């Protein structure tokens, strides 16, 4: 049975982020890839939408510049023929502050000929911002409008 | 990855249809039909700032889930959605959902993307897990940017 494209991509992505070895992941990304990690791009410039391999590789390099993956755990995973979705729990270290960051992440990937053609990632971004700030954001409770 | 279900339809196809049916019932406000898709002990969790959005806390069982959906219905109308991606694997389904809600208070549209993971038991939804770009959602619900509030709080602290 052939290995699902997700596993190869996941290994290569983690190797790129932690070891700055970008060749493997580059080979697994389609030239016309669509990529989006949704979140506040003014605070985290590596978030947002990108199109094309070169732009995506720049984002992966930015991720490698900013984070190290300490641990990750797959809480849920679904594999389609050329697609995959997973909910993951990541333990990261922010390299500039050496702070631990813990994130729950949902990802939806699509592949063609073993290459990534689309990746959408959603994160509980309010929690991410609070962890990056190192303190809670105090807002009024939205008991009647939220 | 595809397992045979009833009537020759794969379990995965059946579960995808069940999820899309659930979404349709919620969007048209038929909460009892939506609840009939769920097990009695359905477990619901959204990863969102529940200290700010107090109604978005964990819900367990049909009664609590009904209360949550009723709260959402009382605040929003004209629910619309698109599902750009849906993946099923055995008794699990994941959807990437783009939702549009209209606020009843001022007719403003709240638009957000979310990931929803469903687990099935005996053909019914037993677990729902959601991840939302919560920073953006809070800003839309508050109708203001949070950034200046963060900066302001930081300056006060100093």
Automatic annotation (TrEMBL), chain A:
<protein>
    <submittedName>
        <fullName>Ketosteroid isomerase</fullName>
    </submittedName>
</protein>
<dbReference type="InterPro" id="IPR037401">
    <property type="entry name" value="SnoaL-like"/>
</dbReference>
<dbReference type="InterPro" id="IPR032710">
    <property type="entry name" value="NTF2-like_dom_sf"/>
</dbReference>
<dbReference type="Pfam" id="PF12680">
    <property type="entry name" value="SnoaL_2"/>
</dbReference>
<dbReference type="GO" id="GO:0016853">
    <property type="term" value="F:isomerase activity"/>
</dbReference>
<feature type="domain" description="SnoaL-like">
    <location>
        <begin position="11"/>
        <end position="116"/>
    </location>
</feature>
<keyword id="KW-0413">Isomerase</keyword>
């Amino acid at each position: 049975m052939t290995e699902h494209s997700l596993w190869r991509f996941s290994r290569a992505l983690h190797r790129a982020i932690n070891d700055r070895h970008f060749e493997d992941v580059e080979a697994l990304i389609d030239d016309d890839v669509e990529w989006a990690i949704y979140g506040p791009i003014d605070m985290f410039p590596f978030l947002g939408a990108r199109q094309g391999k070169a732009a995506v590789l720049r984002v992966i390099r930015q991720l490698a510049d900013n984070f190290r993956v300490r641990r990750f755990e797959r809480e849920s995973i679904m594999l389609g023929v050329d697609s995959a979705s997973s909910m993951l729990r990541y333990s990261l270290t922010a390299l500039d502050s050496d702070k631990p960051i813990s994130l729950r992440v949902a990802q939806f990937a699509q592949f063609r000929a073993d290459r990534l053609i689309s990746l959408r990632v959603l994160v509980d971004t309010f929690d991410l911002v609070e962890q990056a700030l190192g303190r809670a954001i105090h807002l009024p409770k939205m008991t009647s409008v939220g | 990855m595809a397992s045979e279900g009833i009537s020759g339809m794969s379990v995965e196809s059946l579960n995808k249809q069940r999820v899309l049916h659930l979404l349709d019932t919620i969007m048209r406000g038929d909460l009892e039909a939506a609840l009939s898709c769920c097990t009695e002990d359905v477990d619901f969790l959204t990863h969102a700032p529940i200290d700010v959005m107090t109604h978005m806390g964990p819900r367990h069982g049909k009664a609590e889930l009904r209360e949550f959906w009723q709260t959402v219905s009382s605040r929003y109308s004209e629910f619309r959605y698109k599902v750009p991606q849906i993946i099923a694997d055995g008794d699990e389904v994941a959807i990437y959902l783009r939702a549009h809600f209209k606020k009843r208070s001022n007719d403003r549209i709240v638009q957000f993307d979310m990931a929803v993971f469903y687990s099935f038991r005996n053909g019914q939804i037993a677990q729902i897990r959601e991840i939302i770009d919560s920073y953006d959602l809070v800003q839309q619900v508050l109708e203001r940017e949070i950034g200046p509030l963060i900066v302001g709080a930081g300056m006060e602290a100093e």
